[in-house]
């Protein structure tokens, strides 16, 4: 994995941050993304740079918002014009309620983060990954 470029969504905390750390330990350059504030994000970037000796960037992204997703894609492509090697759609949220009481806004938010955002991200980055020689059988 040495030198591969990985974008991990939802990587400012929790499971996503753990995944990003593991990838960095294995030599991947990391693009962290999430809703974290700038101070917290800067601290995470500094930790990665000092602990793993890999290139690391933070690109904010609100995966509920198609414009924010577009900006995330554009910024990552600006940083890595040849594209990324690994896209890890990790971001997610949870809300529990009986169906008849479930807030429609929460449902829409969950669908945006869990389904729509990964679709847009895959759609944007997959052509670059194919061009870099990614084996499509790796996706099965």
UniProtKB/TrEMBL annotation:
Name the EC number(s): 1.1.1.100
Q: Which GO terms describe its molecular function?
A: 3-oxoacyl-[acyl-carrier-protein] reductase (NADPH) activity
InterPro entries, from UniProt?
A: NAD(P)-bd_dom_sf, SDR, SDR_fam
What chemistry does it catalyse, as a reaction equation?
Answer: a (3R)-hydroxyacyl-[ACP] + NADP(+) = a 3-oxoacyl-[ACP] + NADPH + H(+)
> PANTHER family, per this entry?
3-OXOACYL-(ACYL-CARRIER-PROTEIN) REDUCTASE (PTHR42879), 3-OXOACYL-[ACYL-CARRIER-PROTEIN] REDUCTASE FABG (PTHR42879:SF2)
Give the protein family. Answer: Belongs to the short-chain dehydrogenases/reductases (SDR) family.
The protein in question is named 3-oxoacyl-[acyl-carrier-protein] reductase
């Amino acid at each position: 994995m040495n030198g591969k470029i990985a974008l991990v969504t939802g990587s400012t905390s929790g499971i996503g941050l753990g995944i990003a750390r593991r990838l960095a330990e294995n030599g991947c350059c990391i693009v962290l993304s999430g809703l974290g504030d700038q101070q917290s994000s800067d601290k995470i970037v500094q930790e990665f740079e000092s602990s793993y000796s890999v290139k690391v960037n933070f690109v904010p992204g609100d995966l509920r918002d198609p414009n924010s997703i577009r900006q995330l894609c554009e910024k990552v492509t600006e940083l890595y014009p040849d594209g990324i090697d690994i896209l890890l759609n990790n971001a997610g949220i949870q809300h529990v309620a009986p169906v008849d009481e479930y807030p429609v806004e929460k449902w829409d938010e969950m669908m945006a983060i869990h389904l729509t955002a990964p679709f847009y991200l895959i759609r944007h980055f997959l052509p670059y990954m194919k061009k870099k020689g990614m084996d499509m059988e790796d996706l099965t």
